[in-house]
Amino acid sequence: xxxxxxxxxxxxxxxxxxxxxxxxxxxxxxxxxxxxxxxxxxxxxxxxxxxxxxxxxxxxxxxxxxxxxxxxxxxxxxxxxxxxxxxxxxxxxxxxxxxxxxxxxxxxxxxxxxxxxxxxxxxxxxxxxxxxxxxxxxxxxxxxxxxxxxxxxxxxxxxxxx
Length: 162
Fold this sequence. Notes:
The radius of gyration is 19 Å and the shape is globular. A hairpin with a 2-residue loop joins strand 2 (30-32) and strand 3. Helices cover 22% and strands 12% of the residues. The two termini are 14 Å apart. The protein has three helices and six strands. It has a domain at 2-112. It has helices at 2-14, 47-51, 101-118; strands at 24-25, 30-32, 35-37, 42-43, 119-123, 149-153. By secondary structure, it is α+β, with helices and mostly antiparallel strands.
């Protein structure tokens, strides 16, 4: 289940469910890296850039689930430091945490293994999985994403029981 969690997190890191957070309004003046955000100012967090920042992630466009294992060489930043804890926050946290976080994590642990056990998924001929660039998956898309995948039912249905 640990590798599944790593794959789940890596998918969310590369393609977060939403690219920008909802608007946040400051309750007091704050200065960050020389920039002052005044009380009452509103801003949004760029979730995509957090998870794809080359200063925080080795090869950020590469799908590499092992980067979430503490023993892996990619667990730290390219500079060898601990990652900023907010560099991976697809659901945010604290008072602003997404209410669907626990639901999505729980449902995916049930549905994805069932799909993988009972169906085969493969790209159409001529599409190289190693170089395929996934389309954007959020409200900012100007075109409906299209993924050319062939799904076939496995010969043997495998029920999953506890």
